[in-house]
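Hey, resending since the last one bounced:
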Amino acid sequence: MAQDRALKAKVKGSKGGDDRKEARQRSSQLSTSSDTVGVSFAGAAFQADYFASKFTKRGQLVYTILHDVLSKSPHVLPPSETLAVASFGGGPGTDAAGIVWIQRELFPTSSVHCVLFDYETSWKRYVKTLDDLYGDAVSVSFAPCDVTHPLDTEPNRHVSEIETMDILLFCFVCHETSARQRNLQFYLDVAIAAKVGALVILADVKTKSKECLEQVAIAMASVRRIQRLTLSKAPTAEAVVFRIEA
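The structure tokens again:
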């Protein structure tokens, strides 16, 4: 599994200060004040701890949200031969895990390709492992991305094919990067580029991220018509879900 590979990488390359204690401290910052601390995701020991503590939880969150929406409104995302997914801030593949479960349960005849967009490029090392783990129906690729810069700038030169994506995931990235963001231009650009019918999920830490997520949703709605989708049951995180309309 992906976390096993991360643990092996830790043994090979953790001679510096990135030991287990530091990894746990950095992980704890993510759930408290990462917005101002600016936690680095680099380092094999930290990534191993991150996989162990977040993989199932984040995958379950995406699964819960999508299952809630699609079980009562399947027309929101009609079946197709291939589903294209963009996971922003999803470099570890944790959010994509939820897509795997959704594919198996609700789209068994469809294949899925998920692009993991992330600022931390070292997550790319786990792509092959994730590809093997997720099975034949789900493929994964990685591309560097920085949501604090507009889509057409140098840091986002590898971000492409937004117009083909059926699902756009922004999990634990909006609030986490808000202290570094001067504006919400990246989200405006994505909304403009997104195709009609694309499903957008914004999710982040409970309570403290609510205002930030709402600002992102309002910004995206200022350039595209959207349909807000309500959840039957509140998930374990703040969440805003909507569909891009014509």
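Residues 5-16, 29-37 have pLDDT under 50 and may be disordered.

Sorry for the duplicate.
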